[in-house]
Amino acid sequence: MKKVFLTLAIASIAFGSFAQTQLGLKLGYNSSKITTAFITDNDNKDMIQDVYKDFIGSTTGFNIGLVYTSTTDKVFSFQQELSFSQRGFEILDADKKSVGNTRMNYIDIKPLFNFGGGADNWRAYAQVGPSVNIWMSKASYDEDGTFEDKSDEWQNATADEDGENDIRVELGFVAGIGFKYKVGPGWLLFNPRYEWGLTPTTIVDTGSKGYAIVNRTLSINAGYLYEF
Hints:
Blueprint: H1 2-17, E1 20-37, H2 45-55, E2 56-57, E3 59-71, E4 76-92, E5 98-119, E6 122-142, E7 147-149, E8 164-166, E9 169-183, E10 186-197, E11 202-205, E12 210-227
Antiparallel strand pairs: 1-3, 1-12, 2-4, 3-4, 4-5, 5-6, 6-7, 6-9, 8-11, 9-10, 10-12, 11-12
């Protein structure tokens, strides 16, 4: 992991030393949910998957943050982001009606690579890269949106009475597309993308081994970047 971040740091310095740079703000819409992974409880595997498929739905939130890009030409650019992002999930009944939701707030750090093309006044690109997400808080709400409890806040390395051990730092993988158009002294940005959680946000002990919970997030982002 240290080698990965060292490589990203060197790439950032290399890009920034001889490239056009852009700095700005972005605001986005999130649609997120949780799903299961790394199931070791083979006796209950199908039941666990069915519960999360049938009784867990997506919820909405937003993200806002800083964007810094370094561009060497019209093909390659390196994009770094620091943002606040809301994720979570809906709890559904047998009729697919929401009976509550949980919302989790994160600070996201994203070093992303863009590959594409364009002209002097526009760019289109594909985007991939890692994400380091730091879980700041977690809250549950009932079906009317009224605050319900905060008993399941981040537990560090200690499992709660339900056998759930919440993990504060999540690693993810981002893939998406982007479009930038020159307006005034900067660029308008449009950037939809999808993020897969690669490491657990929660590990659940079922008594006979267990399973992990991971995030899945669709984001649609827009912003404005000033060029330097």
